[in-house]
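Table S5 (text form). Sequence records supplied for joint modeling of the two-component complex.
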Amino acid sequence: MGMHEFQIIQSYFTSPPLRADLGVGDDCALFRVTQGHQCAVTSDMLVAGRHFFWDVDARTLGHKALAVNLSDLAAMGAEPLGFTLSLALPAVSEAWLADFSGGLLNLAREFNCDLIGGDTTKSVASLEHNGLVINITAFGQVPAGAAIRRDGARVGDDVWVSGTLGDAACALALLLRERSGEVLSVAEALALTALRPRLECPMPRVALGAALRGVASSMLDLSDGLAGDVRHVLQASNADVEIDCDALPLSSPLKNLNLEQECPLWHAWRDALTGGDDYELCFTAPVTQRDVLAALSIHVGVPLTRVGRVVEREGEAPNVLWRSENSPEGLVHMSEWRGYNHFS
Amino acid sequence: MGMHEFQIIQSYFTSPPLRADLGVGDDCALFRVTQGHQCAVTSDMLVAGRHFFWDVDARTLGHKALAVNLSDLAAMGAEPLGFTLSLALPAVSEAWLADFSGGLLNLAREFNCDLIGGDTTKSVASLEHNGLVINITAFGQVPAGAAIRRDGARVGDDVWVSGTLGDAACALALLLRERSGEVLSVAEALALTALRPRLECPMPRVALGAALRGVASSMLDLSDGLAGDVRHVLQASNADVEIDCDALPLSSPLKNLNLEQECPLWHAWRDALTGGDDYELCFTAPVTQRDVLAALSIHVGVPLTRVGRVVEREGEAPNVLWRSENSPEGLVHMSEWRGYNHFS
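The corresponding structure-token record, covering 688 residues in total, follows.
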């Protein structure tokens, strides 16, 4: 690398703060929280070889490292203010640093969110481990008491999701096959091209999250798949949920790939329900809010889909009932596709 | 390891928040900043094999990981509010987790500072690299406009330091020799026992930092040695500085070790000036504040020592003039001890 820590920070990670009072360069950064607001904080650590490929494009990596944190702020209904970045760096090139910080700071500017501090250190690497570790802690603000938490879902509420589900999971599965040397079919290659940005450049639903304050009763962002993530809401809200699989919002590329491969639709559901990296919002809202949500969806420009409803807790542990008109008994058994590999 | 991320967080890193509105368990944590205050933020990443020994005691590691961040808050005059913790974990035992979180949360309680969120992930490790990475982002609050920044030093101001300097550096040098198989002399072994807590369990000068608001004109914490760190103040404040080496505060164990080994005093100065990990505060203050500082030192219970003064900038780059009555020309040349190894 050859560059000293201070040079790296000065060259690639210092931009004049848009709203913070004091940015990079002192013992601490300083920012203000608007009166009557709470500060919201979230933190994510990404490890090379675990959360991303060693050789992923540095620009998309910079984008995604910040995007996943802004998605957490969105999921509370918070407005981004700033973030800190810590990097354990292997011997990377200046070109890599320029791309990484470019992707990162572009997204930051888009959301008026300042890089206000952090830490840069040389990592300990070995042949099979390049040692890159990225940690971002993001700060936002939300009017006091208006944050949309996981524990507010009430029996009878609708369950909603934004955008489409399963795109990133499908892209990842195709990418893994391609990297292992397999030749993809034309349909698969087309699907990968269409869906890859959903895996590598997710756009956090910040405006939607803020617009849902006072409308949604509970919310989280989908990072590990709806099937698992919705249980966090149920756990916090002490309820169960019914999901209508026929209603799950699927993108055209994902649906088309299933049709081409003559797979039953639930192969796409598996991506939509158990795949990670959606970074869509999942929220509950009273039935009385349906008209408001229809208008809000158009205003924010993000499709919203009603996929289920909150029901009374039956047992000890949170339970999700998966329904489908296309299934003989009207019920889908998750175990049917657990462990099934669509692409093998 | 065998434990799932959620279990680890629940078992070891969840304690009811003392002051935050919402702690671990949602997409974000929530806390309030007192009206009329700014939020101060700092972040530090520690990598095993670079910042600490693989086999360091987990309890002291947990303590130190938080202490270095609280020291940054102290250096702004900020009061700690909370922190997030991100861990990339190799296959560590539950005993390790219990010790690490114990050391961490003990210190957190002492400063009324909540662990309110973070991330736990499995690291990518190899034989020569156990892969443990720790990132803490700490935030505090300070009355708006009262933060003590690096850019406030004025020509004529005194330069002060808290506590004693060089203890951690001396302990580290002795420890490295011991680990390499050398047998320490009795004097050295005694010095190591006395100074080791200064290396492994530094106590951040939080109360002192806050008490210096309105008194100090600039401040930072000493993590890389006074000789290097003071240049950050000079850079930001556009000034030079004269340091009186004879005035440097040295602990008895450090002085005694030098006497026993019949080393000239400047061997101890080298530790005091170029060694890291002091976590003392270095600040400037107008001459008119000397009496206030004498009283404040007694009130807070931390020794303060006047070690120099701020002078007009002479050249382009910041310059430090090292003075000593014991030196023939009254000047000490840093280059004399650059690269010199006290212990070899």
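Note: The first strand of chain A starts at residue 29 and ends at 31.
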